[in-house]
Write a structure and sequence with these properties.
Layout: H1 17-22, H2 43-66, H3 73-79, H4 84-90, H5 94-103, H6 108-114, H7 122-135, H8 147-157, H9 160-180, H10 185-210, H11 215-242
Length: 243
């Protein structure tokens, strides 16, 4: 993909949005359409993550059974066999108990951009990564009809407090992607547009599945929508760059 604009790397807000997405800052991770894994954590960090997961899983099971608003933090702490103060050391807010699994994806777009292949633009890398996610029915793309994933998405989108909290996670995703694109206002503008596109695509896929379609039935339309979205995104960014 050829895009206009200067290379974004100075972090001073100069250059075009197209330049920010067209160049970015290159990292070392691999980006071949598979999930981009972060560097291996230490044993202490892995144990901490296991504790996070155990508490979150216990909370989500209770939320799915009774509803988010009908389960107290004290009940979650009791189910996880920890005190409330300990729980809040892991999860600052009740909403984070349900959204913990999204934390693993906060910097995913940034890692995809940082780990792209030589000569590959950030937009091309993000497009390839999203299409690969559709192909493997990654829940993050919304194209997953596994019963437990559907139940979680219904809990998420049916709870205003969780939807509001999710926007905070997406804000951090934008910030990470903006840093990967070189920083500055132009990179932030580009990151905001990219994250919005990914969110809308995932929500549309989920809504079709929630309405009764299977992931396999939605797949072709999801791929077409993604291709059109990235074309529209590219054209929009190029237009801003020419302006």
């Amino acid at each position: 993909m050829v895009m206009s604009g200067e290379k974004a790397g100075g972090g001073n807000g100069s250059g075009s949005v197209a330049g920010a997405v067209g160049e970015g800052v290159r990292g070392q991770e691999s980006g071949q359409g598979e999930p981009v894994a972060p560097p291996r954590a230490s044993l202490r960090e892995r144990k901490k993550q296991l504790t996070y997961r155990a508490i979150s899983d216990a909370a989500i099971a209770m939320f799915l059974e009774r509803g988010f608003d009908k389960v107290s933090v004290a009940e979650v702490a009791a189910a996880a066999d920890i005190s409330k103060p300990t729980l809040f050391r892991y999860f600052p807010a009740k909403e984070d108990l349900a959204l913990h699994r999204f934390a693993d994806h906060e910097d995913e777009a940034a890692r995809v951009v940082g780990g792209r292949e030589p000569g590959e633009s950030p937009l091309d890398a993000l497009r390839r990564h999203f299409l690969a996610g559709l192909d493997r029915r990654d829940p993050v793309t919304g194209l997953c009809d596994a019963p437990q994933v559907l139940a979680f998405h219904r809990l998420l989108y049916g709870t205003p407090a969780l939807v509001a909290r999710l926007y905070a996670y997406q804000g951090r995703s934008e910030a990470a992607l903006a840093r990967a694109l070189g920083g500055g206002v132009t990179a932030r503008l580009a990151a905001g547009q990219v994250v919005a596109v990914l969110r809308i695509l995932a929500e549309e896929n989920w809504r079709r599945i929630d309405a009764g379609e299977s992931a396999d039935a939605v797949y072709a339309g999801a791929v077409q929508a993604a291709e059109e979205a990235f074309v529209q995104l590219r054209r929009g960014l190029e237009a801003e760059g020419r302006g």
